[in-house]
Predict the structure.
Amino acid sequence: MHLHEEVGPRATTISAIAERAGVQRLTVYRHFPDETAVFQACTAHWLTLNPPPDPAAWAGIADPAAKLDAALGAFYRYYSATERMWTTSHRDVAEVPALQGPMAQFSGFLASVGEALAGAFDAPPETAWQVQTTIQLALVFPTWAQLQARGLSDAQKVSLVGVWTRGAMSGSATRPAR
Protein backbone atom coordinates (compact mmCIF):
# COMPACT_ATOMS: atom_id res chain seq x y z
CA MET A 1 0.00 0.00 0.00
CA HIS A 2 2.79 2.43 0.90
CA LEU A 3 4.69 1.61 -2.29
CA HIS A 4 1.58 2.28 -4.38
CA GLU A 5 1.32 5.67 -2.71
CA GLU A 6 5.03 6.50 -2.88
CA VAL A 7 6.07 5.32 -6.35
CA GLY A 8 2.72 4.44 -7.88
CA PRO A 9 1.07 1.17 -8.79
CA ARG A 10 2.89 0.95 -12.13
CA ALA A 11 6.33 1.02 -10.46
CA THR A 12 5.46 -1.29 -7.55
CA THR A 13 6.95 -4.71 -8.18
CA ILE A 14 6.60 -7.95 -6.26
CA SER A 15 10.33 -7.69 -5.55
CA ALA A 16 9.85 -4.24 -4.04
CA ILE A 17 6.92 -5.47 -1.95
CA ALA A 18 9.02 -8.40 -0.69
CA GLU A 19 11.95 -6.12 0.11
CA ARG A 20 9.73 -3.64 1.98
CA ALA A 21 8.15 -6.51 3.96
CA GLY A 22 11.50 -8.15 4.67
CA VAL A 23 10.50 -11.44 3.02
CA GLN A 24 11.32 -13.41 -0.11
CA ARG A 25 9.33 -12.96 -3.32
CA LEU A 26 7.92 -16.48 -2.94
CA THR A 27 6.37 -15.47 0.37
CA VAL A 28 4.56 -12.60 -1.34
CA TYR A 29 3.35 -14.96 -4.09
CA ARG A 30 2.08 -17.43 -1.48
CA HIS A 31 -0.21 -14.74 -0.09
CA PHE A 32 -0.97 -12.97 -3.38
CA PRO A 33 -0.88 -15.29 -6.39
CA ASP A 34 -1.12 -12.48 -8.93
CA GLU A 35 -1.19 -8.70 -9.35
CA THR A 36 -5.00 -8.60 -9.06
CA ALA A 37 -4.82 -10.21 -5.61
CA VAL A 38 -2.21 -7.64 -4.55
CA PHE A 39 -4.44 -4.78 -5.69
CA GLN A 40 -7.54 -6.24 -4.05
CA ALA A 41 -5.73 -6.56 -0.73
CA CYS A 42 -4.09 -3.16 -1.03
CA THR A 43 -7.33 -1.44 -1.97
CA ALA A 44 -9.31 -3.11 0.80
CA HIS A 45 -6.68 -2.19 3.40
CA TRP A 46 -6.29 1.38 2.15
CA LEU A 47 -10.05 1.95 2.08
CA THR A 48 -10.32 0.60 5.63
CA LEU A 49 -7.77 3.21 6.71
CA ASN A 50 -9.18 5.92 4.40
CA PRO A 51 -12.91 5.35 3.97
CA PRO A 52 -14.57 7.68 1.46
CA PRO A 53 -17.22 10.09 2.69
CA ASP A 54 -20.49 8.47 3.70
CA PRO A 55 -23.56 9.88 1.91
CA ALA A 56 -25.55 9.36 5.11
CA ALA A 57 -23.66 12.38 6.51
CA TRP A 58 -25.58 14.76 4.22
CA ALA A 59 -28.68 12.68 3.49
CA GLY A 60 -30.78 14.57 6.03
CA ILE A 61 -30.06 17.99 4.57
CA ALA A 62 -33.21 19.20 2.80
CA ASP A 63 -31.82 22.15 0.83
CA PRO A 64 -30.16 20.73 -2.33
CA ALA A 65 -27.48 23.45 -2.49
CA ALA A 66 -26.55 22.92 1.16
CA LYS A 67 -26.56 19.14 0.59
CA LEU A 68 -24.21 19.58 -2.39
CA ASP A 69 -21.94 21.86 -0.36
CA ALA A 70 -21.78 19.31 2.47
CA ALA A 71 -21.02 16.44 0.09
CA LEU A 72 -18.38 18.35 -1.84
CA GLY A 73 -16.82 19.61 1.36
CA ALA A 74 -16.54 16.03 2.60
CA PHE A 75 -15.06 14.76 -0.68
CA TYR A 76 -12.65 17.68 -0.98
CA ARG A 77 -11.38 17.16 2.59
CA TYR A 78 -11.01 13.48 1.73
CA TYR A 79 -9.04 14.25 -1.43
CA SER A 80 -6.87 16.72 0.49
CA ALA A 81 -6.02 14.02 3.03
CA THR A 82 -5.47 11.26 0.43
CA GLU A 83 -4.10 13.25 -2.51
CA ARG A 84 -0.89 11.29 -2.90
CA MET A 85 -2.61 7.92 -3.43
CA TRP A 86 -5.24 9.33 -5.78
CA THR A 87 -2.57 11.13 -7.82
CA THR A 88 -0.50 8.00 -8.41
CA SER A 89 -3.57 5.83 -8.98
CA HIS A 90 -5.07 8.17 -11.58
CA ARG A 91 -1.70 8.53 -13.27
CA ASP A 92 -1.19 4.75 -13.54
CA VAL A 93 -4.69 3.35 -14.04
CA ALA A 94 -4.50 3.08 -17.83
CA GLU A 95 -1.28 1.05 -17.62
CA VAL A 96 -2.17 -1.25 -14.70
CA PRO A 97 -5.08 -3.56 -15.55
CA ALA A 98 -5.34 -4.80 -11.94
CA LEU A 99 -6.01 -1.22 -10.80
CA GLN A 100 -8.82 -0.66 -13.27
CA GLY A 101 -11.39 -2.69 -11.32
CA PRO A 102 -10.98 -0.84 -8.00
CA MET A 103 -10.92 2.51 -9.79
CA ALA A 104 -14.09 1.61 -11.71
CA GLN A 105 -15.79 0.66 -8.44
CA PHE A 106 -14.93 4.03 -6.92
CA SER A 107 -16.13 5.76 -10.09
CA GLY A 108 -19.41 3.89 -9.78
CA PHE A 109 -19.73 5.03 -6.16
CA LEU A 110 -19.11 8.65 -7.21
CA ALA A 111 -21.65 8.31 -10.03
CA SER A 112 -24.34 7.16 -7.59
CA VAL A 113 -23.50 9.98 -5.18
CA GLY A 114 -23.63 12.49 -8.03
CA GLU A 115 -26.91 11.15 -9.31
CA ALA A 116 -28.50 11.45 -5.86
CA LEU A 117 -27.16 14.97 -5.36
CA ALA A 118 -28.32 16.10 -8.80
CA GLY A 119 -31.74 14.53 -8.25
CA ALA A 120 -32.19 16.61 -5.11
CA PHE A 121 -32.20 19.76 -7.27
CA ASP A 122 -35.39 18.72 -9.05
CA ALA A 123 -34.17 20.53 -12.16
CA PRO A 124 -36.46 20.77 -15.18
CA PRO A 125 -35.78 18.03 -17.74
CA GLU A 126 -34.12 20.42 -20.18
CA THR A 127 -31.41 21.35 -17.62
CA ALA A 128 -31.29 18.23 -15.42
CA TRP A 129 -28.53 16.70 -17.55
CA GLN A 130 -26.43 19.87 -17.11
CA VAL A 131 -26.84 19.78 -13.34
CA GLN A 132 -25.96 16.09 -13.20
CA THR A 133 -22.93 16.51 -15.47
CA THR A 134 -21.70 19.48 -13.44
CA ILE A 135 -22.02 17.61 -10.16
CA GLN A 136 -20.46 14.44 -11.56
CA LEU A 137 -17.44 16.41 -12.77
CA ALA A 138 -17.18 18.27 -9.47
CA LEU A 139 -17.02 15.00 -7.50
CA VAL A 140 -14.08 13.37 -9.28
CA PHE A 141 -10.50 13.65 -8.07
CA PRO A 142 -9.07 15.10 -11.32
CA THR A 143 -11.40 18.11 -11.04
CA TRP A 144 -10.40 18.61 -7.41
CA ALA A 145 -6.72 18.31 -8.41
CA GLN A 146 -7.08 20.88 -11.20
CA LEU A 147 -8.71 23.36 -8.83
CA GLN A 148 -6.09 22.58 -6.19
CA ALA A 149 -3.32 23.31 -8.72
CA ARG A 150 -4.90 26.73 -9.25
CA GLY A 151 -4.48 27.47 -5.55
CA LEU A 152 -8.14 27.31 -4.51
CA SER A 153 -8.99 26.31 -0.97
CA ASP A 154 -11.54 23.56 -0.50
CA ALA A 155 -14.10 26.20 0.52
CA GLN A 156 -13.40 28.14 -2.69
CA LYS A 157 -13.76 24.95 -4.73
CA VAL A 158 -17.14 24.21 -3.15
CA SER A 159 -18.28 27.80 -3.75
CA LEU A 160 -17.21 27.65 -7.41
CA VAL A 161 -19.13 24.42 -7.97
CA GLY A 162 -22.18 26.15 -6.48
CA VAL A 163 -21.83 28.83 -9.15
CA TRP A 164 -21.46 26.17 -11.84
CA THR A 165 -24.54 24.33 -10.58
CA ARG A 166 -26.68 27.46 -10.48
CA GLY A 167 -25.53 28.20 -14.03
CA ALA A 168 -26.45 24.66 -15.08
CA MET A 169 -29.92 25.09 -13.57
CA SER A 170 -30.54 28.10 -15.76
CA GLY A 171 -28.42 26.91 -18.68
CA SER A 172 -29.44 26.97 -22.27
CA ALA A 173 -26.98 24.48 -23.74
CA THR A 174 -28.52 21.81 -25.91
CA ARG A 175 -28.06 18.23 -24.82
CA PRO A 176 -25.39 16.47 -26.87
CA ALA A 177 -26.58 13.66 -29.13
CA ARG A 178 -25.59 10.19 -27.99
The radius of gyration is 19 Å. The chain has a mean pLDDT of 88.
